[in-house]
Specification:
alpha+beta, Thiol Ester Dehydrase, Chain A, nine-stranded mixed sheet
């Protein structure tokens, strides 16, 4: 099934979006496997590709004065990935607030044989670039996200969900 121009897996309950990459020389670390920073870059690219195909283009974000904010990315590594090998990174929408302000995406990394070698849970929000405050989505942007099939364990997010780890800054002063 083709979904938003890219490969996806579809069941009755949910849809998974995929982006494909090849591990390049610049993606490996001193241990000659996929570097932690490359995981973050691949996930960010996958998210933005997904969102752009939903209408969240640079032009649309500028018109609405919106920017995405990442609260956290928790990555779990299961197995190494090496130079020159193809990688598939999935994205599933696992949570969203009713106004679209908060969102939770899950990513999985698969090798060329379909083996899952890493998983990430990330949460973020949308920021109004004028006020620098978090804001909900409006119009076609909210409709676009609402129209997409969600992950199998999708839930409606509240502000309290964004605080589930109870981390607060500890200033030096």
């Amino acid at each position: 099934m083709v979904f938003l121009g890219l490969l996806c897996t579809h069941t009755k309950k949910y849809t998974m979006y995929f982006k494909e990459f090849e591990i390049r020389w610049s993606d490996i670390d001193a241990n000659r496997h996929l570097a932690n920073s490359a995981y973050l870059i691949f996930m960010g690219h996958t998210r933005m590709s997904f969102l752009m195909e939903l209408g969240f283009s640079q032009k649309a974000l500028a018109e609405h004065q919106l920017g995405p904010v990442v609260f956290y990315e928790h990555v779990y590594y299961f197995k190494e990935a090496f130079l020159g090998k193809p990688v598939r990174v999935s994205l599933e929408i696992m949570g969203m607030s009713e106004d679209g302000k908060f969102f939770e995406f899950h990513h999985n990394f698969y090798d060329h044989q379909g083996n899952n070698f890493a998983h990430c849970e990330m949460m973020g929000a949308w920021m109004d670039l004028n006020t620098r405050n978090l804001t909900g989505l409006k119009g076609d942007l909210l409709k676009g996200l609402n129209s997409i099939k969600k992950g199998e364990d999708f839930r409606i997010l509240t502000k309290e969900d964004t605080r589930k780890f109870s981390k607060k800054p500890k200033h030096l002063v």
